[in-house]
Description:
By secondary structure, this protein is α/β, with parallel strands linked by helices. The protein has one domain (7-314): Rossmann fold (3-Layer(aba) Sandwich). The chain contains ten helices and eight strands. Helix 3 links the parallel strand 3 (80-86) and strand 4.
Amino acid sequence: MTGYLDEEAQWVLDISRAAKARPFESGSPLEARIAYNAGSPALQGAREAVASVEERQISGPNGPIKVRIYRGIGAPSQDGPGLLYLHGGGWVIGSLDSHDEICRWFANLAECTVVCPDYRLAPEHKFPAGLMDCAATLAFMAETAADLGVDPKRLAVAGDSAGGNLAAVLALMARSGEAPQIAGQLLFYPNTDARQTTDGYRRYAEGFGLTAATMKWFRDHYVRTPADIADWRVSPLLAETVANAAPAFIATAGHDILVDEGMAYSMRLQEAGVRMVARHWPGQIHGFVSMGRFMPAARQAVEEAVVAWRSFERNAV
């Protein structure tokens, strides 16, 4: 029994079925990227105006990284909040453009500066290449905080799906100095357990957008060997401890194969004493925050993430 679907979610699924879209796993990663990039504009809403957008190249351990920097309307010129946003796409697809809408929402709603990296994708660049790019971008934000107009003590990380995975891992790395310190982690339906054995993989294996077959295809492209699956930098739920991680906001969708692992990670953080705001959209599907054209819940989720982030700052010791 899977419960009800929100009307908007059912509408998106019906559109997808009518289009008879080819499953990503039936073709090459390049073909999947082309298809995803072609389809994502139809799901995103109008691009919200922000104070400014610029692109730069920064240095990383694997070479240059293109980043897009958004300054929100009302963002302070100095000592403002800064957000590293990591796009989803199973570590294989996704781009700066596919999640542009979310970055613009965050920039304006939080009156902050958002930096989104075009991190390296698998299988051309397997784990941990993309993660290293994300860590390098966070380091860039900390090191150039004055230039960006942000306070290095007010940095947070955010991401959806595989981007949520990368953000969660950075939050764990920050505890030991492997990444700069952060003040919050904002995760939308994060992938936290690459073993892919939760019951959600049975309940929502097919028919709800992201399928179990596609997730396996994504993961197998990302990892170097099966041994990587148990590495906490791939599966943060398997970390020995999550204590002392940054305060977290975690959003989950009811009809999502990742719902169980997202909830399990929320519970682990709570049990470890990490400040937590957990929000569940029972009638929603994976990826709904990227579907602003159809989903009122998309912007609502970002609004709630911003409220949580502000509460973390207010309650900071």
